[in-house]
């Protein structure tokens, strides 16, 4: 009754569980490397479906207008719909599957707990303990996801020069990263950029750091700071 009463949430729960399943079989290629590549695409397509359903839930009245598009781009679900489309037809990159896997795992765990509560307050204690441990590490998981989002930017550039990526991919991914940086719901990407800047500045200001390395790092920090969008 609980599942049928919340059909859209249940559909997203199932698609997230399928995303976790496919992502796990890509990261751990138990069925072979050839099959792993197909699971990579399936995971991203399932994540795109979840993101589209979540976006529909957040903005149910679709409109072909500039205002609707601007509103949609503020939603994290729209960000990860774009993310899935960026990587679904690209060369499989393990780094790119971790945000999809971990976000799906976190959201699926939250809804699984609701399903267990609807069934019985004491049902499946072992699974409940696992879900609680996952929830306790949520902040660290979100930081790890943000780290992946950031370091995928140079990875897309490297893929371009190695012949494994397209010319447009770094530019489209840069747009995705600016959306994540400006996210209203998830400040971890923005916070991690700040933390990385502080760490790098601390290291390069040590006397043992070569001058050319310090200059290169300071120039890179200045360049990246200019590219950062303004956050209200």
From TrEMBL:
<dbReference type="GO" id="GO:0071786">
    <property type="term" value="P:endoplasmic reticulum tubular network organization"/>
</dbReference>
<dbReference type="Pfam" id="PF03661">
    <property type="entry name" value="TMEM33_Pom33"/>
</dbReference>
<comment type="similarity">
    <text>Belongs to the PER33/POM33 family.</text>
</comment>
<feature type="transmembrane region" description="Helical">
    <location>
        <begin position="80"/>
        <end position="106"/>
    </location>
</feature>
<dbReference type="InterPro" id="IPR005344">
    <property type="entry name" value="TMEM33/Pom33"/>
</dbReference>
<feature type="transmembrane region" description="Helical">
    <location>
        <begin position="12"/>
        <end position="33"/>
    </location>
</feature>
<dbReference type="InterPro" id="IPR051645">
    <property type="entry name" value="PER33/POM33_regulator"/>
</dbReference>
<dbReference type="GO" id="GO:0005783">
    <property type="term" value="C:endoplasmic reticulum"/>
</dbReference>
<protein>
    <submittedName>
        <fullName>TMM33 protein</fullName>
    </submittedName>
</protein>
<dbReference type="GO" id="GO:0061024">
    <property type="term" value="P:membrane organization"/>
</dbReference>
<keyword id="KW-1133">Transmembrane helix</keyword>
<keyword id="KW-0812">Transmembrane</keyword>
<dbReference type="GO" id="GO:0016020">
    <property type="term" value="C:membrane"/>
</dbReference>
<keyword id="KW-0472">Membrane</keyword>
<feature type="transmembrane region" description="Helical">
    <location>
        <begin position="150"/>
        <end position="174"/>
    </location>
</feature>
């Amino acid at each position: 009754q609980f599942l049928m009463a919340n059909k859209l949430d249940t559909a997203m729960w199932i698609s997230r569980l399928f995303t976790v399943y496919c992502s796990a079989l890509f990261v751990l290629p138990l069925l072979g490397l050839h099959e792993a590549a197909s699971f990579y695409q399936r995971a991203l397509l399932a994540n795109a479906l979840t993101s589209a359903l979540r976006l529909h839930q957040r903005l149910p009245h679709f409109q072909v207008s500039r205002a609707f598009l601007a509103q949609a781009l503020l939603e994290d679900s729209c960000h990860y719909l774009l993310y899935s489309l960026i990587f679904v037809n690209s060369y499989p990159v393990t780094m790119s599957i971790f945000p999809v896997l971990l976000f799906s795992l976190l959201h699926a765990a939250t809804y699984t707990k609701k399903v267990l509560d609807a069934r019985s307050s004491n049902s499946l204690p072992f699974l409940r303990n696992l879900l609680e441990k996952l929830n306790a590490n949520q902040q660290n998981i979100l930081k790890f996801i943000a780290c992946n989002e950031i370091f995928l930017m140079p990875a897309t550039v490297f893929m371009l020069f190695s012949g494994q990526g397209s010319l447009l991919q770094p530019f489209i991914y840069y747009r995705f990263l600016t959306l994540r940086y400006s996210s209203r719901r998830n400040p971890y990407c923005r916070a991690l950029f700040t933390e990385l800047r502080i760490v790098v500045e601390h290291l390069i200001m040590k006397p043992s750091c070569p001058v050319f390395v310090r200059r290169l790092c300071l120039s890179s920090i200045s360049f990246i700071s200019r590219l950062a969008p303004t956050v209200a």
